[in-house]
Design a protein that fits this description.
Order of helices and strands: EHEEEHHHHEEEHEHEHHEEEHHEHEH
Strand order of the largest sheet: 5-2-1-9-10-13-14
Radius of gyration: 19 Å
Largest sheet: 7 strands, parallel
Shape: globular
Bound molecules: ligand FO1
Length: about 325
């Protein structure tokens, strides 16, 4: 059984590769919930949905989020009212959000709801929100000496990740508790893979939940990361820009430094082969391969490279 710490698009593609490599029922995906937000009166869990829709072979391939073949009649009708339109939910995606929000109001946990959704999409890997409690990534920028606070979706979608970020916090982290399923998965997994997701915005919230980082420190020998940064650029999203604004190196080396206490191995892209020596000097075993997952075969080979590094792969 293997665990994958997961954000959105990059992690979903990586998990798809893994599901083509090993028995999908042996994969446990621990999902970030720091991007979650209440919008349109509904509970949005973008990373969970991106993973479910991708593994369910129904993701919109152009955006990397939402459903393929989606229609937008509800959003158009909402726009006619002058309603909130910067964050768009497609007509079919709306059903996902109505379902989730209703069950949350009835007191069903996000873990249980996610499992019901997974089954509806015929997804075999288990998808586990890191916590059922409140955990939100909050970003700050400074303008004319005044600090401005933004929720993740305000930063990412409304402001198109343009603001220069001065700091990031994980609101609720101190009181959050990892679910029993998550703890048990991380205790027993034969390999723990950190997907090629944004270290600060996607994996950082997972690591901020009390107990998780300590557990990974103890299991460091079994933890391998895949760099989401290739030649100083994120494949998707603001990872490189944000890391540089926060004073973290915007490179595969910066990623290795960010995770250095909790990983024993990392996979970096061939374009970054020149960084391998510096990363190995941190005491991190380094594999160099193609990490740009533009098809399932690349994802599968990447998953294999990562698993092979800690001897967790199939023969
Ligand atoms: N991203 C956008 O850029 N614009 C949107 O209107 C938008 C809506 C949306 C709805 C549901 C969902 O699951 C994701 C959505 N996203 C949208 C993507 C989302 O903001 C990001 O993919 C993640 O939060 C970053 O990992």
């Amino acid at each position: 059984m293997i665990a994958i710490l997961s954000g959105g698009v990059g992690a979903a593609r990586f998990a798809l590769g893994m599901a083509n490599l090993i028995d999908p029922q042996d994969i446990f995906i621990i999902s970030n919930v720091g991007d979650d937000e209440e919008l349109h009166g509904l509970h949005i869990s973008p990373d969970i949905d991106t993973v479910i829709y991708t593994l369910g072979e129904s993701i919109n391939p152009e955006t990397g989020w939402g459903l393929n073949g989606e229609t937008w009649r509800v959003m158009d009708a909402l726009a006619a009212y002058g309603g909130l339109t910067w964050f768009r939910l497609g007509d079919m995606d709306l059903a996902t959000h109505l379902f989730r929000t209703q069950l949350l109001r009835e007191g069903v946990t996000l873990t249980e709801i996610t499992d019901r959704m997974r089954k509806r999409w015929n997804v075999k890997p288990k998808i586990l929100p890191v916590t059922d409690g409140h955990l939100r990534t909050v970003l700050f920028s400074v303008s004319a000496g005044v600090e401005k606070r933004m929720s993740f979706q305000e930063y990412f979608v409304q402001h198109a990740h343009r603001p220069i970020i001065s700091r990031v916090i994980y609101d609720g982290a101190e009181e959050a508790t990892a679910t029993d399923e998550v703890i048990q998965t991380l205790e027993t997994a034969s390999a723990i893979l950190i997907a090629p997701s944004n270290p600060v915005l996607s994996i950082g919230p997972i690591l901020s939940v009390p107990g998780i980082t300590d557990l990974l420190l103890r299991r460091r020998d079994k933890v391998v990361a895949v760099s989401p940064i290739i030649a100083g650029e994120a494949v998707k999203g603001p990872a490189a820009k944000l890391m540089s604004e926060l004073g973290l190196g915007p490179s595969a080396l910066g990623v290795a430094q960010y995770y250095r206490k909790i990983i024993s191995a990392i996979v970096i892209d061939s374009a970054d082969a020149n960084l391998a020596t510096d990363i190995r000097a941190l005491g991190i075993e380094t594999a160099v391969t193609n990490t740009l997952m533009d098809n399932v075969e690349v994802s599968r080979l990447l998953a294999k490279t990562a698993l092979d590094m800690i001897g967790g792969g199939p023969n």
